[in-house]
From TrEMBL:
Boundaries of every Cwf19-like protein C-terminal domain copy: 180-242
GO biological-process terms attached to the record: mRNA splicing, via spliceosome
This protein's GO CC annotations: post-mRNA release spliceosomal complex
Source species of the chain: Eutreptiella gymnastica
Protein name: Cwf19-like C-terminal domain-containing protein
Sequence ranges of Basic and acidic residues compositional bias: 9-20
Span list, region Disordered: 1-20
UniProt cross-references to PANTHER family, sorted A to Z: CWF19, CELL CYCLE CONTROL PROTEIN (PTHR12072), CWF19-LIKE PROTEIN 1 (PTHR12072:SF4)
Organism taxonomic ancestry: Eukaryota, Discoba, Euglenozoa, Euglenida, Spirocuta
Superkingdom of this protein's organism: Eukaryota
Domain Cwf19-like C-terminal: 19-135
Amino acid sequence: EDAAQALKRQREAEEAPDDTKRRRQDSSCWFCIDQIKEDARHLVVSHGDYTYVSLAKGGLVDFHVLIIPMEHYTGSNTIHSGIQDEIGQYIDSLTAFFESQGQYIAMYERNIHFGGNASHMNLQVVPLDKRIREEEVKSAFLARAMGNSLAFDDYKFGDKLSEQFFLFALPSEKFLYRHKGKGKGHGKGKGEKFDAKFGRDVLAQVLGVPAAADWKSCVRPSDEEKRIADRFKAKFNKFDWTLNRNKKQGRKPR
């Protein structure tokens, strides 16, 4: 690597949060890149230097994808600038791709620790047909939040995030729930509990498939997953910033 790349990596290493916010990779994590099981590797559809994109196991729709750091970070409030940059580039690439398909994206990230366990950060990206109005999605989201007695604030990228949070984003609006619990999925109000399926529940309702809130009910056979992954890559490749970068730099894709 050249001097500029070396300096960039040094800066990112210095920015990396301490081990209280980042766990080591371990065999129990589905998302650490070195620990992905052989029978799930076909779901990975793109690689950057610090992040990758995978089809969701049991996705709400065929092209439901996740943007995931390769190493174990608990949330977007703990990642270094290299990961932030790549996530931003993937969001731009996916937005352009789904726009070409007559769709827009809804995204959500849950950084709430259930049972005291910190999960591996993943940003869920779900394409929605433009015939489903954003206002309809927003109304369903706010109604579910009210039903669960959860207070959401408007959010702008760059705002400081709490240790635990849930972020829901549409193209025109972003909402943030700042979790005040003690790491078991409970909020500060007595008896208040954050539903682990909150974001998926809302989108399943909007898509008219409420039973799909349970991802296990949507798991496809492996050969069908492979066909969907191949179809996604064939359509997405011309929008994939990593492939465009590799062509410009004469690098071979991974």
